[in-house]
Design goal:
By secondary structure, the protein is an alpha+beta fold. It contains 4 helices and 7 strands, in the order βααβββαβαββ.
Length: 165
């Protein structure tokens, strides 16, 4: 498996992964799948802002993607980023996500970022444990801030301090 920067030709595969997650999980608090045009715009905006989008590829197929971007718009938060890691449904549990997130950390450090955070659905204990194995700490919980599949959802915040690693 190779981890590399995503290219525009990867966006369709990223879209397929994103939409499967939207349709079938609470990892993304969206109700409607994205269009290719929306994902292309997201990719262009993210990369134009200087933020990475990386993919895990094997045998020419995108297995997963990861990125980070601005957490909050105010200048005081400029050293904090929020990440996303999503893996194709048939590749979950095989270490793809760990390799992607591990590859993001030095990219954030190289950009001078201090903290990387993630918002995880509280019921996704596997994702919480995944983050903890990579050095993230659970730092908070917001109750009933999301709504999907006819129920209220809690978010658990995880974070890692980048410049002490």
């Amino acid at each position: 498996m190779q981890i590399r920067p995503a290219i525009p030709e990867d966006v369709a595969a990223i879209l397929a992964i994103h939409n499967e997650v939207v349709r079938n999980t609470t990892a993304i608090y969206e109700d409607e799948p994205s269009t290719l045009i929306e994902r292309q715009s997201w990719f262009q905006t993210r990369t134009a802002q200087g933020y990475p989008v990386i993919v895990a590829v094997e045998a020419g197929e995108v297995l997963g993607y990861a990125t980070f971007g601005e957490w909050r718009a105010r200048v005081g938060y400029r050293f904090t980023v929020e990440h996303s890691v999503h893996v194709r449904d048939d590749q979950r549990g095989k270490g793809v996500g760990g390799q992607l997130l591990s590859a993001l950390l030095p990219l954030a450090r190289a950009m001078g970022k201090h903290v990387m955070i993630g918002a995880v659905d509280a019921d996704n204990t596997g994702s919480i444990r995944f983050h903890e194995r990579l050095g993230f700490k659970v730092t908070g919980r917001c109750e009933q801030v999301g709504y999907k599949f006819g129920r209220w959802l809690d978010v658990v915040w995880v974070q890692i301090t980048l410049d002490t690693q």
